[in-house]
Design a protein that fits this description.
Number of helices: 7
Shape: globular
Strand content: 5-15%
Strand order of the largest sheet: 1-2
Oligomer: single chain
Structural class: mainly alpha
Distance between the termini: 24 Å
Radius of gyration: 14 Å
Number of strands: 2
Order of helices and strands: HHHEEHHHH
């Protein structure tokens, strides 16, 4: 069962700065490798989140009534990769409404604004907004 945003927020709020950073690093190791079928789009820079300095690529589809998230983030950017993996773990396999319900201040609620720099926060905010917009555009199950 995927972790909920409420549970993630609870865990991150209870943790100190170093523990939050370690959690992101742990999540970064869990992001699955990008499926081969997305490689061409990635190589053409399609699906890139331009607002993020780190090259973050994101695909959102609906399969059997639930969201499927696929992402590619370089291992050399473990905090961003970890944040994306955290989103994937909470949203993959969930109905679109879960993505629509991502708190607007998720980064603050996770206390990541205390852990990471301002430039990184802007990129992470752009990732959250892209997920919400993309999930809203995925047609509902028939």
């Amino acid at each position: 069962m995927p972790v909920t945003f409420d549970k993630l927020i609870q865990r991150f709020q209870a943790a100190d700065k170093n523990t939050r950073l370690e959690a992101l690093l742990d999540y970064s190791r869990r992001l699955p490798e990008l499926a081969a079928r997305f490689q061409v789009d990635r190589d053409r820079e399609a699906h890139r989140i331009a607002e993020c300095m780190t090259p973050v690529f994101l695909w959102i589809e609906r399969e059997n009534g639930v969201l499927r998230l696929y992402a590619d983030v370089p291992r050399e950017s473990p905090t961003v990769r970890g944040f994306v993996a955290l989103l994937v773990s909470a949203l993959d396999g969930q109905p679109g409404e879960v993505a629509a319900g991502i708190p607007a201040d998720l980064i603050h609620l996770l206390r990541l604004d205390e852990t990471l720099g301002m430039m990184r926060m802007q990129g992470l905010s752009a990732i959250v907004e892209r997920v919400k917009r993309a999930a809203a555009k995925v047609p509902p199950a028939a």
